[in-house]
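Contributing new records

If you add data, match the layout below exactly. Sequence lines come first and carry their own label; structure lines follow with theirs. Keep one chain per record. Anything else will be rejected by the validation script.
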Amino acid sequence: MSRVFIVMGSDSDWPKVKAAAETIKKFEVSYVARVLSAHRTPAALEEALKEAEDSGVEVFIAAAGQAAHLAGVVASHTTKPVIGLPIANGALAGQDSLYSTVMMPPGVPVATVGIDNSTNAALLALQILAVADKGLANQLKKHRLDMGDKVKAKDAKIQKDLP
């Protein structure tokens, strides 16, 4: 059973989405990643979402560029948390993706992370799972402490190098 379902509208999104998969894998959480289009393969998307729900998926990450309706379509088919990941491509460099992902109508929420920020999408998915998973919550706490230690080490190096 996969706990996180990552869906992207095009395989061209994968280079920007891959960090989400790597982050989730680092925390040893099961996931699946698929290419399914809200516009070009709506029936296949609907079937995959039904299968994901039936198999126990707990959180969805939907990555898309340009019109970026994917997260909204996913959210319309589930009551599980959906995280929208706007992808930068096209003339507006991801701003169109951001607005179409974040501006959902009342009643169909989509959490949205920054443009191309797949690491934060993964970490948010993990935090959602950690509400009911103490072991994962502890891993996330350690991850935060480790990030803080790296900043402290960088500060110490700068302080040492001051004239």
